[in-house]
Specification:
Radius of gyration of chain A: 21 Å
Distance between the termini of chain A: 34 Å
CATH topology of the largest domain in chain A: Aspartate Aminotransferase, domain 2
Number of strands of chain A: 15
Number of domains of chain A: 2
Strand content of chain A: 5-15%
Number of helices of chain A: 12
Order of helices and strands of chain A: HEHHEHEHEEEHEHEEEHHHEEHEEEH
Largest sheet of chain A: 7 strands, mixed
Oligomer: homodimer
CATH superfamily of the largest domain in chain A: Type I PLP-dependent aspartate aminotransferase-like (Major domain)
Largest interface: A-B, 59 and 59 residues
CATH architecture of the largest domain in chain A: 3-Layer(aba) Sandwich
Strand order of the largest sheet of chain A: 2-10-9-8-7-3-4
Helix content of chain A: 40-55%
């Protein structure tokens, strides 16, 4: 399975004095802590023993029912019975991997792609095919070519505010991707953890409604409520959903009942709609501060596209940049950390001149100072 | 992976009017509900945002530290760093399966054994070798013979108040099992969910202390605190522990932080020692009532050994009994359910004349009435 490169990197990151742009997690300031006493009391009062008892593997019905309304706001029509709860999105990805991947199977992924997904897939020994991307994410023609050439078991995508690039696939391309999935009878995994974190521009429909028989939609409460509760969910074609539930039974029986009840109270209390603007108010100025600092402090040879949402900015240095070597200098001598972009590619050696910068975990002044130090590190190497 | 037989059976069990001896779960009356408001408030006050944030895959340190003291009461000396948290015991079993089982590998199990363990193992396509048991559980000579003949990847045991038989392996046999594990360099999985539920007799040491380099000890908060929180833990040889953590990263990143913080508060508040006697006061009369009703209502051709603890009584009918056929009659015409024992054998067709009766989910009067009906069902077939 191999150790996670990010995991190793984060060991350096926790060194005292380090300012980290390497994070991949939400700010605790984005959690609705002011509601938690009320929500936990509601769980005890309304759900009582049920919140502490074994539950069904499919998930806690009050949460599944609440998610019907949430998905409706995304343009996804569903029923509670079709929504299955998992232990974070990671739980969905593990379930998919467990039921579908045999050693040697091909999975098509974006170049670059989300590392955590590969960690879920890798124990089942797949191989990867990379789909080319541009500023608008996945290039449909490349996806179709990869499908025709390597007949992947599935295509894994993070279409909105992707991790690591922050890029969002526009509506027209989403429809094309759905058409390709249908035409080639290919399964698409649509992982959507960041969709609600939009700071600019208009909502774009998920791919799922355009090809519901060919897409597994993966959602999570981690970025809009609390990651520590480990509550994710998915919508999958019926047969796959059934097998994923059977697989999950052997993995953890079910997701924490208390976590599910708490998420249900959060949704049913109408708190989500009131809370998301607060998250945006926290993160949007941080994104702006990061990008402004990059404009001020990074050499002209560095380029990036400011994302409309999410948690990351992706930067490309000059072609001869070795961002792993720069990382060593930046962390050792300038106390600033990021994630070298090469780690996000399924194909080793790709993207050596790229880096992922996170803006959710530090305030504006810290971001400005961190990017300033990064600029210094770049100029000395 | 196959559907769970118990799962299918439980569909009938939930029919209105059914009295079920088929359950495998704790009574909600055994949860310390009177403490939950205090404990959740403590989590918010003392752990705050940490209880809602991502955590390390190994587990939440305050819980791991609290478990050092708990394990000490079992005669297991450990450090917090050696204890890893999983999403229920099931999470430990899945981790073991994921890192160790290749298709065709042999796993040695008790005959009969815990079905949920097989559900964790089955997706990885092992084969099973059955170890013979008697009234004292696993027969060491049979275990050694199975090891020599089939070189199993591991031996899976529930040594105390086993599910489904309720049997407990005596101390002397435990030492023999440890010696065999060491001598043959075989890994033993010691699953211990029921050890604290002792209604008679003296505490018996787990196998782990006798062969710590050859045993993975699996514990859980499910039977002594709350199963719905999905908090389990394990102690494993260092290399296996390391790989299990890596595997878990891809499965769910980590177990619910809130659940872990709640379990830590329960242990650190000294509640466990006060709460276990309450569970015993609830279950012990139920066990007594069940066994007394069996003596009164079941034919002389039925035999059983009253267990000293746990949640189950195992009954054997006459040799020609088909307990699956009887199940159909009992549920359809007498509204009483149990689990046919044959489902607990790795080797299909074994134990056709056996049944598992649960006593935690019904009060004494209900248990008496249910066994009376079961007796009627038996006499009509």
């Amino acid at each position: 399975m191999g150790a996670s490169a990010i995991r190793e990197i984060l060991k350096v990151v926790s060194r005292p004095g380090m300012v980290s742009l390497a994070g991949g997690i939400p700010s605790p300031q984005a959690f609705p802590m002011e509601l938690m006493a009320e929500l936990t009391a509601s769980v005890l009062e309304r759900h009582g023993e049920t919140a502490f008892q074994y539950g069904t593997t499919e998930g806690y019905m009050p949460l599944r029912e609440a998610l019907v309304g949430y998905l409706h706001t995304l343009g996804i029509e569903s029923t509670a019975e079709k929504i299955n709860i998992t232990s974070g999105s990671q739980g969905t990805l593990d379930g998919i991997a467990k039921i579908l991947i045999s050693p040697g199977d091909v999975i098509a992924v974006e170049a670059p792609t989300y590392l955590g997904a590969l960690q879920s897939f890798n124990p089942y020994e797949p191989t990867y095919a990379q789909i080319e991307t541009d500023a608008d994410g996945v290039i449909p023609e490349s996806m179709e070519e990869v499908i025709r050439k390597s007949r992947p078991k599935m295509v894994y995508l993070v279409p909105t505010f992707q991790n690591p690039t922050g890029r969002t696939i526009p509506l027209e391309r989403r429809k094309q991707i759905a058409q390709i999935a249908i035409r080639t009878n290919t399964l698409v995994i649509e992982d959507d953890p960041y969709g609600q974190l939009r700071y600019e521009g208009e909502f774009i429909s998920p791919i799922y409604p355009f090809a519901p028989d060919h897409v597994i939609y993966c959602g999570t409460m981690s970025k809009v409520f609390s990651p520590g509760l480990r509550v994710g969910f998915n919508l999958a074609p019926a047969l796959l959903a059934e097998w994923m539930v059977k697989a999950k039974q052997g993995v953890d029986l079910h997701t924490s009942s208390f976590s599910q009840a708490l998420a249900a109270e959060f949704l049913n209390g109408g708190h989500l709609a009131r809370h998301i603007p607060k998250i945006i108010d926290l993160y949007k100025p941080r994104l702006n501060a990061l990008v402004q600092a990059m404009e001020e402090s990074l050499p002209d040879t560095y380029t990036w596209i400011k994302p409309d949402g999410g948690m990351f900015v992706w930067a490309e240095g000059p072609e001869d940049l070795d961002a792993v070597a720069l990382y060593a200098v930046a962390t050792q001598h300038y106390n600033v950390a990021y994630v070298p972009g090469t780690y996000f590619y399924a194909k080793p050696g790709s993207g050596k001149n790229t880096m992922r910068l996170n803006f959710t975990m530090a305030d504006e002044a810290t971001l400005k100072s961190a990017v300033g130090k990064l600029g210094e590190a770049i100029r000395t190497t």
